[in-house]
Amino acid sequence: MKTYKLIVEKGEDGFWGRIEDKENLITSFGETIDHLRTTMEEAIELYYDELAEPMPKFEFELVMDIQEFFLINDFINISTLAKRIGMNSSLLRQYANGIKFPSLKQVNRIEIAIRNLGNQLSRTELQPN
Question: Does pTM surpass 0.85?
């Protein structure tokens, strides 16, 4: 299965996405990230129709910078996340607002924390009282 890195950027009215394939740029837009995935799938289908090649099975890997991540996921409490990874909350807020830019090492720390949080949430089961 082919994996496309879908680069996501938030605009005023939705989400823009782009991928590269065989040195070609494919772009799309969606009102939500799920809508962007759908319109990008349609764009890839048209792309392969133009190439007159069979379309491979594929999946998307979402890629965004830290500022985009916190803009899209504005429900995440930056102070709590910073505390969880032992980072100064003011510094993480500056990364989230594009005032400062993290090193690759800092990006990796933040990404690991976010993945761990996602794993923890996906293993959570809620019950009614």
Answer: no
